[in-house]
Fold 16S rRNA (Guanine(966)-N(2))-methyltransferase RsmD.
Amino acid sequence: MTRIIAGQLGGRTLATPRGADTRPTTDRVREAVFSRIESIFDLTGARVLDLYAGSGALGLEAVSRGAEWVTLVEVDRRTARVIEANVAELGLRAVARVHAEKVDRVLERGPGGETFDLVLLDPPYPVGEAELATTLGLLISGEWLSPDALVVVERSARSPEPTWPQGLALIRSRTYGETVVHLAEPSQAADAE
């Protein structure tokens, strides 16, 4: 069972996709990740982009903890419908938008004037390092990030560190069992261009 850990919706359960190629972040890891996020970043009023959203647990957790908006992107249409059901069940339709399409396709279109303060990426393990590097590059080139944004990448502990594009710098990494979480931020190199 997946649930919201803390905040205004703490304890509420989330539906999870059946038979889809997703691996929901465990409650324990999600709690540790958000503890780390909140130690360096204020979620109050944040705009969140949840890429490879799965059940939507990460993005919806951010809203529960004070974020004002979340955009969730999930390529699998059945899984995206599960996210939409979770959004409706939690009463978050006014603060959440779900895109049922490829992450890179959404990023290539550009943010349409919006920027995001927190970007969560939890790609399925079959997403290779080159594809992830392209996605991270699109966040920078498409100007999706606010100047003080935080980018959180969750991967298998057996995966190499992501290839960070110019303009995005690693802050720290932390391993939680089989999962490693990388935190990055826009770097000064992006401002100098």
